[in-house]
Amino acid sequence: MQVAHDLRHDWRLDEVLALFDLPFNDLLFRAQLVHRQHFDANRVQVSTLLSIKTGACPEDCKYCPQSGHYNTGLDKQKLLEVQKVLEEAQRAKTQGSTRFCMGAAWKHPTAKDMPYVLEMVKGVKAMGLETCMTLGRLDEQQSRELAEAGLDYYNHNLDTSPEFYSQIITTRTYAERLQTLAHVRDAGMKICSGGILGMGESLADRAKLLLELANLPEHPQSVPINQLVKVQGTPLADAEDVDPFDFIRMLAVARIMMPKSHVRLSAGREQMSDEMQALAFMAGANSIFYGDKLLTTDNPEADRDRQLFARLGIQPEQRQEHDDDVHYAALEQAVLQNRGSELFYDAAAAQ
Ligand code: SF4
Question: Is residue 99 within a helix (H) or strand (E), and if so which, with residue range?
């Protein structure tokens, strides 16, 4: 069998649909082959996510409890103080996380916000953690400033296909999203971009989302695939469930199309059984968020993740870019020794 492992940026829709159309076992087999050529299949990257500014967002993303357009009873929170963010990052590092992601519910950061945000990046970076942020739209200068401050990843999801997009968001265009991704890429940062399943999109929309991502000039280094978390008060509160096998298919096709990217099993993990998460890892997902909250929705609690990793023989992946090999060898050793105890950042205890 021909295995598509070369990095391609010229995927065609018929090819992507053909992958979705494969018998489930054949698709998973292909995804596994591709996955094992580029990754240790028994390692999963673990990130910690902190909401640095919560709620009252001017955007109208229909899936999002943080949108100011919907009443979801969410506790709003202004931008956290830099010191508080650094304390949380230190805590995440001490307990084994390798990447610290900071999310703000903004349309875009303002000139007033930027100095604080840059301080957060510098501080977290200085701890030896990988840094990631999601702050909404960025212009060229903001992207440069963030890159210079040491931001490794910028998250900006495409969410769905260009065709379906306007049914989900009307306050920001698809083209604006692509523009932000271009600024981030041009500034030399890595891109984290993916989408959400379960918003009423068709199979073709899912295929077209992957087509958009894979045909970018560079594959996003991180591709989060979310399952809609239905939140009362949002317009998608009563959306139909995604067939679990269709969700797994999406992960597998993403793995095949973007062989070197980390495919992240992201929001919606709380609703997934252990068996489904195991299938997701088999399909090539190799990154998760850890913590009891994924921004504002529940994320599986510490014990369940620890137990699942242990039951599956999965270990957390360490940083790939070793500024200081000795330091990271020691960290890896410490993490392995502490497996099952202090391995994960317990966001619940940090409240
Ligand atoms: S997804 Fe982001 S941009 Fe959209 S409403 Fe939520 S916080 Fe705002």
Answer: strand 99-104
**In CATH, what number is assigned to the domain containing residue 338?**
3.20.20.70
3-state SS assignment for residue 267: coil
| Per-residue pLDDT at 341 | 33
In this predicted structure, the answer to whether residue 32 has a pLDDT above a threshold of 60 is yes
Q: Which helix (H) or strand (E) holds 50?
A: strand 43-53
Q: Based on the structure, what is the number of domains in the chain? A: 1
Output the pTM of the full model: 0.84
* Residue 29: band (very low, low, confident or very high) from pLDDT cuts 50, 70, 90: very high
Ligand 1 within 6 A of CB of 57: yes
Range of the domain at 197: 13-350
In a domain, 284, yes or no: yes
* 91, 124 contact by CB (below 8 A): no
Q: Enumerate the H helices of the chain as residue ranges.
A: 13-21, 24-38, 82-94, 114-126, 140-149, 162-165, 174-186, 203-214, 244-257, 274-282, 302-312, 325-337
| Total residues belonging to the chain | 351
Q: What is the pLDDT of residues 141-193, one digit of tens each?
A: 999 999 999 999 999 999 999 999 999 999 999 999 999 999 999 999 999 99
Does 6 reside within a domain? Answer: no
Q: Distance between CA 319 and CA 301 in Å, rounded?
A: 23
Strand partners, 192: 155, 222
Q: Which residue of the set 30, 91, 172, 192 is catalytic?
A: 192
Binding site members for [2Fe-2S] cluster: 101, 132, 192, 264
pLDDT averaged over the chain?
Answer: 84
